[in-house]
Amino acid sequence: MLWGVGLAAPRSCVADLSRNRSLSLGWCAGPEEPPPAFYGGEIVAFPLSGGGGTMAALGSDSWWKKTLYLTGGALLAAAAYLLHELLAIRKEEELDSKDAIILHQFSRPKNGVPSLSPFCLKMETYLRMADLPYQNYFDGKLSPQGKMPWIEYNHKKVSGTEFIIDFLEEKLGVNLNKHLGPHERAVSRAVTKMVEEHLYWTLAYCQWVENLHETQKMVSLFGPFSDLLKWIFCHLTKGIVKREMYGHGIGRFSEEEMYTLMEKDMRTLAGLLGDKKYIMGSTVSTVDATVFGHLAQAMWTLPGTRPERLIKGELINLAMYCERIRRKFWPEWHHDDDNTLYESEESSEASKTYSPLQDFSFYSRTETFDEEGNSISQTPDTDYTGHSLFDSDVDMDEYRDHEQCK
Question: Where is the Failed axon connections homolog N-terminal domain (predicted)?
Fold first, then answer.
């Protein structure tokens, strides 16, 4: 094998330095294109085919075609596999959406929490609060608007939790806010916007930037390269969150300033809730699905972070609020330490164990089906252990009695 040495310019050319005293330039451009000025490059070595011309090897059509075919094919295969693993996370049995609510959302995480997305958790909690039967579809496919979650009902696709709720109220006649007056409805919407447009970003920063290593452990991906795919997915999400936060404006502040804003929002929610069972009083409303979907992230998906310490410490009424909603509307979402009022900061890491969330493809509060399609009798106020799930089980009065006994 004979080798030549040349100087590779930034343009598509090689200057042969090995045999000719004068520079012999071989251009890869078309014959009509005049050779541009040569400003320098890097020393390279290249094989010579049978001692032929300098560009004999590089100019071979078959050599270039084979290289392009192999490289392009490998890249396309890798891209197709990654796309399949990231988007087609898991397939569920497809049902016709005629008179059935099909909820598209991300797959369940590994820590027993229904979703790492506050909007997915909000939407599914709302359906349970409204007692609307629905089918989960964990395909990871975004809506035509690029949103998640989204629903299909009678072959109509609706995305955006606010528009989904408006659509279901119009089509099915449900309304969790019918007991609210005009002033209360206005307050409810203001709280919703504060949570979704402000608190959301600070929690997302904590989840996908500062606490990414813990979040990566919770992400559920399967396959021979699941660890690599999780790393890629989480770091891609981190970049997206940081870029969108910067565009929103809140990402232009320092980390300490962002956490200051987060604490103000959480203290506002705690002050608004007070001793009430729900945000707007003794009866659940739509805003509770929103607030729960976001606070649940701080409560159960951000171990050891400032949001978790705040909600389980100083703002304990928010923790009790989350527990009330979890026990009433998520009976299968079971923790091994459900008998405790709350988890103190001194709790050991070993005691923080979780049971996997049962993954029903079809859910109704009054009747649920297991994976084999068998009916499971289950009332909205009891879980599978027979324990009562009434609101009074986790109440501020009980918390005060617990504190007095210390």
Answer: 1-107
108 domain-assigned: yes
Q: Indicate the number of domains in the chain.
A: 1
Pairing of strands 375-377, 156-159: unpaired
CATH for 225:
1.20.1050.130
Average pLDDT over residues 148-173: 94
Q: How confident is the model at residue 228 (pLDDT cuts 50, 70, 90)?
A: confident
Query: Which domain range does residue 156 map to?
Result: 101-331
Give the model's pLDDT for residue 316: 95
CB neighbours of residue 295 within 10 Å: 26
Over pLDDT 90: what percentage of the chain?
Answer: 47
What's the sign of the alpha-carbon dihedral 171, 175, 176, 181?
positive
Is 365 inside any structural domain?
no
Asked whether residue 122 is assigned to any structural domain, the reply reads yes
Instruction: Judge contact between 92 and 137, C-beta under 8 A.
Output: yes
**Calpha distance 374→82 (Å, rounded):** 36
- In this structure, what DSSP letter does residue 139 have? -
What residue type is assigned to position 366 of the chain? T
The predicted model scores a pTM of: 0.66
Beta strands 150-153 and 367-369, pairing class? unpaired
**Residue 395: inside a domain:** no
**Residue 115 near residue 124 (C-beta atoms within 8 A):** yes
Q: In what order do the strands lie in the sheet with 42-48?
A: 24-27, 13-16, 2-8, 42-48
Beta strand 101-104 pairing with 134-137: parallel
Looking at residue 224, what is its pLDDT? 72
Instruction: Round to whole Å and give the CA distance between 26 and 7.
Output: 11
